[in-house]
Design brief:
The complex is a heterodimer of chains A (about 450) and B (about 550). Chain A is of the alpha+beta class. Chain A is built from 10 helices and 19 strands. Chain B has about 550 residues and is of the alpha+beta class. Chain B folds into 2 domains: about 280 residues, PmbA/TldD fold (2-Layer Sandwich), CATH 3.30.2290; about 260 residues, no CATH class. In chain B, α3 packs across α4 and α5 packs parallel to α6. Chain B starts with a helix and ends in a 5-residue tail after the last strand. The chains are: A alpha+beta (about 450), B alpha+beta (about 550).
Chain lengths: ~450, ~550
Amino acid sequence: MAILSQEEAKKIIDKVLGYSKSDEMKVELTGGRSGNIRFARNSVSTAGASNNLALSITSVLGKKTGTSDINEFDDASLEKAVRRAEEMARLAPENPEYMPMPGPQTFGKPQAFVDTTANMKAPDRAKLAGASIKSIRDSQLSGAGFLEDSANFNAIGNSKGLFGYHKSTNVDFSLTIRTPDGTGSGYAAGDFNDVSKLNTAALTEVAIQKAKASQKAVALEPGKYTVILEPLAAGELVQFMVRAMEARTADEGRSFLSKKGGGTRLGEKILDERVTIYSDPGNGQIPGSPFSSEGYPHEKVMWFDKGVVKNMSYSPYWAQQKGAKPLPQPSGFVMEGGSQSLAELIKGTEKGILVTRFWYTRWLDPQTLLYTGLTRDGTFYIDKGQIKHPVKNFRFNESPVIMLNNLEAMGIPVRTRGNLVPPLRIRDFTFSSLSDAV
Amino acid sequence: MKRREFAKLSGLGLSATLFAGGAMAGNRISAEELLNPGLDVAVKKRLADAALNAAKSKGATYADVRVGRYLRQYLFTRENKVQNIVNSESYGIGIRVIANGTWGFASTNEMTPASIAACAEMAVEMAKANAEIQLEPVVLAPQKGVGEQTWRTPIQKNAFDIPVKEKIDLLMEVNGAAMKNGASFVTSNLFFVNEQKYFASTDGSYIDQDVHRMWPTFTVSAVNKQTGRFKTRDALSAPIGMGYEYLSNKASEKIVVPNGPTVYRYAYDMIEDATLAALQAKEKLSAKSVPAGKYDMILDPSNLGLTIHESVGHPLELDRVLGYEANLAGTSFASMEKLKSKNFQYGSKIVNLMADKIQPNTMGLVAYDDEGVPCKQWPLVKDGILVNFQATRDQVHLLGENESQGCSFAESWDSVQFQRMPNVSLQPGPDKYSIHDMIKDTEKGIYILGRGSSSIDQQRYNFQFSGQLFYEIKNGAIVGMLDDVAYQSNTQEFWNSCARICDKDDYRLFGTFFDGKGQPGQVSAVSHGCPTTRFNGVNVINTGRKI
């Protein structure tokens, strides 16, 4: 088992720091295990498992840094790795943007580790995948899926007395179920820290229903439509915006947050006033790492409050240039929603299109955050509050910034790909062409 | 974890800032250590035999072993600063077995005979556990053992032999050229990879291969703070299966288009391209926004290469056709029925697309694939008709064939090999015809260069591609630059609109260094060759928006 306790990790890090002859040193110790199983055509296809434990040493001489990694832990190997990092620093070019390492910090203690997940083994995976395959086969459909579980820890320490430790588990399951004639396809996915919250049977049932219901799709004209984006689809577009909140590119005039004439849009209302997005590693549903790889704390940060840009992320260097506080990019985010279920959102829709998920979403213009991509695995027409029939998949060309100004309603947020995102009803969502893909 | 981050990047396009932070597989080492020779081939054979024997003794009916040492050197700079230099080495063994008719795979970086035997046993145990939910036993196409073989990418200059300082000096000169010519910002990178792969199987093959590839690239940005607009221009280089000799200035490897761009064949002048990029990025700031509509598209290899990759390479992967990738990448419009009909018109009659694992200077070039199959070339689309797919040993029987095409590849020793795309290339036209001739013959067209935004559906029908440079062509001449251009089409419709292909003198390579596929994700590198090609009446959309 490669999960070291906080005490074990600290002991190794302190020992390594003791070998340092450089001006500053950072030591990162990471380890864990992961296992996976893939199935397709209603049968297992491949599987794998891996363990790792690795130590990374960054030595600093003036403004020159060198990093060496090692996965041997005897004293001689550790000392050799320290000497090697120092030698690499000596030979490195100077980095004029180098910033001194932070001293001791106070980190939160998110509860992200669950023993049941950590203890998963190959037969557990085969059992979950096998049960899912059986349901699919019983429905005379064809399924492909992937289950992966992991348990990891990471610890960080530096020569200025900083120390942090965090451990987490995760399990991801997704599956795509198709009708034998290839005219219907349905998808469902879930991710949790605790495998006991993962209901593979329920997800399989959702994908089966979507596969059956999406057969014989009707072609609608491309154009602007009211859409209901399920959390998976909504989250995909929103995350691109959250990831683009870097202060430096905004200040440099090459971001959607750059302002005409110079400066940034910090403090401006750029989204609908119901849009509030924040990150919080302490959130029990999506616990995240309490510190960044540079050793700065991940705290609760408001990014958009009632549509207003409240914060941008700052690297330590850029923070110093601008007199701001270093603020790392968040690893996950929470978008606040409403109180309606997805079913209630559908019921309240006069005419619209329900989107299960997007696929192959890629940027077109970093200035406007215009993205393109396609709907996939369950796209349906809603008329007078009811799902009427499946529709052929569309290509969209849309910006999350424009989309979140055309907000009509939001449902209850759910966890999707490590974020909490509500289903959204959006007006005038731009579909630019049709796709024959199922 | 690191490997997954790596694979994700391939889907997003290159995000150098993430790489600059050091997210990559393997242990970081010094540049000098990249030149260590690694294990002697006799030692590798002993370790491989230990694994094969252990697997057989635990009940495997087939086993293969890959002892891998993967060396990478990545350099990152912006303006006059070095952001990061990463040298890494990843070393270990991956053991794949068939037991009870089912695949099992395990890997370890502890290279002792005891831990290798334990790893082989773990692979067999996994195969046996999964056999419980296996529908059809694995069927392997026969492959005769090839005995002991060695092979190396035919490079002239090993990039790892070149001192880091020389590479940094080059990038500083590149950045300086861009800034001097009006760039607001520039980032530049060099990526060098050396895969030292030793393969052995219970068929009796012991194959030692030394594979090299590289990619020089940059992004130049021009910002107009008054208007609040900014534009970028990426390098027109190709990731390529060559050594450091690719980075040279040879007039014979250059094509200059009057009033237009300069493009490169097998020698890349990075400083000249950065100079031109800065001037062109500034020009883009005031370029005319394209009126949407139908145009004849003249696509440079630096742009068409990606379209080939997405609309020909991926849909003709047999595992996709069969449904093995349905849960992530998707399936394919190019069904088995379409292949068997022998009359599926994939493209117009002038379209010939070859799969090729033996083409010089390409990133897919090796002598044997990752399951010991000798590499070759074969047609995928012949005179416009779909004639074949790409397959591995365990799937080729589903095509009714009993010889693998040699398309197995694993990203590293710790990832299981599966079907990956060979080089897929469009063959040149038979008659003498240059880019100059093509522009002269075009009335209303757009000439596109460089890799831009790309998106295609999960069965590879509907796609949308952008680019780096867009030139408006009117009545046989380039009249100026356009902006906000993306072309949308359907794969079959697009390839059937292929009207003219330049000749072999215009043939150049495009490449993708980080192509992602599979769960967990793995990246591979592959090249696509073609000459400049014209497609008539393609739908162009305007991507300009206001927020």
